[in-house]
Specification:
Number of strands: 18
Helix content: 25-40%
Shape: globular
Largest sheet: 12 strands, mixed
Radius of gyration: 20 Å
Order of helices and strands: EEEEEHHHHHEEHEEEEHHEEEEHHEEEH
Distance between the termini: 26 Å
Number of helices: 11
Structural class: alpha+beta
Strand content: 25-35%
Length: 400
């Protein structure tokens, strides 16, 4: 290891903590981020149990910074998830883990492979273990994928009373993933190749874009679509989204790239920027814009809603019973709060469980995100672990 980690007792205040909101119109609090460590130009900040890493340089250098700054978190997650759960409790064979991990890595663009190679140089995990950790979510899904449970919702224009667009996102998975969310990371990638800086939200050591935002306010998140199997000869849709965030400054600019994407698994990509939002339904053979945003409100769960698909939109053989119910609940919430949506109202929507008219599962909502693309502010919640925590990413994403 050529560099060394330098601890810092310096407090960097990205935005002062304000009094907690007492009503839906009050500003939501932003966390102060403490510079906890530095390594070879990268920085680690802390906001409670949420880690934020700021990474710069080449892709290999950013990987080295990530690996060194998050050594402890990745070691703990590897022990809990890979050794403790997959190998011991679930009884997966090591060979199966390695086959899945390698198949994911082999389909990565070279620049993202470089991130993982750099991580393996400094994290204390050899490359084999680093790749196992990167594939954390895939072992139970690659051959036995259950239907997804995620939800996305956006409001803008008349739905916000002409205030900034706000996006809400639930990341749902099997209940045991709640343990993994104890090491949630916001990773800010600022490569020296001229691409747009991007912040990804994911587990420690996991490098792909299930949820992310770029410097210009383009926000993307992915929900699982109707189960159609895998196309293992294609690049991972999650790394494709990482590339779109790095290459396009707006939803208008990114739309053709989204529609040109043929994913490796059926997906619903929900996208927004400060001007509006859209949903892109991606089967294994075609990708289509959904439309239907005349009320400047968007709801999406795990089934295709667009009317032009020649396939069953809600097939109870492959769709969990909550997908339609969560979608209907979000549409009702959109009507209820029309003209009043703010980040605080969106948090209230995501705090509402399915039986009470919301989208959220008690046991399987793993983490939640609210984003305001215009300001580059996000709020994260890890149910049962950490309440809503605000992060102002503008100083990190826009700082040269």
């Amino acid at each position: 290891m050529k560099g060394r980690i330098v601890g810092a007792g310096v407090w960097v205040c990205l935005l002062a903590v304000v009094v907690a909101a007492t009503d839906a119109g009050a500003p939501a609090p932003m966390a102060r981020l403490e510079v906890a460590a530095q390594f070879e130009g990268g920085r680690l900040y802390r906001a409670g149990d949420i880690r934020v890493v700021e990474l710069t340089g080449s892709y290999r250098q950013m990987g080295r910074q990530y690996g060194a700054l998050l050594q402890a978190e990745m070691a703990a997650l590897y022990e809990t998830a890979i050794e403790g759960y997959y190998l011991q409790t679930a009884g997966y064979a090591p060979e199966r883990l390695d086959t899945v991990a390698r198949s994911l890595f082999d389909r990565y663009p070279r620049r993202y492979q470089e991130i993982l190679l750099g991580m393996a140089e400094t994290s204390g995990l050899d490359l084999n273990r680093q790749l196992r950790l990167n594939a954390l979510e895939w072992y139970p899904k690659i051959s036995h994928l259950h239907y997804g449970r995620c939800s996305g919702v956006a409001a803008w224009g008349s739905s916000t009373g002409r205030r900034p667009l706000v996006f809400g996102r639930n990341n749902d998975d099997s209940a045991y993933f709640s343990t993994f969310a104890r090491v949630l990371v916001v990773a800010v990638f600022k490569p020296g190749d001229g691409s747009i800086p991007v912040a990804l939200i994911n587990y420690a050591g996991v490098i792909y874009a299930a949820t992310g935002i770029n410097r210009d306010g383009l926000f993307l998140e992915l929900n699982s679509g109707p189960w159609m199997g895998f196309s293992l000869g294609r690049a991972s849709v999650f790394t494709t989204l990482f590339g779109i965030l790095q290459d396009y400054p707006s939803l208008k600019a990114a739309q053709q790239a989204l529609l040109a994407t043929l994913p490796d698994l059926c997906s619903i990509v929900n996208a927004a920027d400060p001007t509006g939002a859209g949903s892109y339904e991606m089967s294994l053979y075609d990708s289509r814009p959904r439309g239907g945003n005349e009320f400047e409100f968007l709801a999406a769960t795990n089934h295709f809603v667009g009317p032009t698909w020649p396939l069953s939109q809600v097939d109870e053989q492959i769709v969990s019973e909550t997908s339609q119910r969560r979608y209907d609940n979000l549409v009702r919430r959109g009507r209820l709060h029309r003209g009043r949506f703010t980040p605080e109202v969106m948090m209230q929507v995501l705090d509402t469980t399915i039986p009470y008219g919301g989208p959220t599962e008690v046991d399987t909502t793993i983490y939640q995100v609210v984003a305001e693309p215009a300001s580059l502010r996000i709020w994260l919640k890890v149910p049962r672990i950490q309440d809503w925590t605000g992060l102002d990413l503008a100083p990190l994403l826009r700082e040269e």
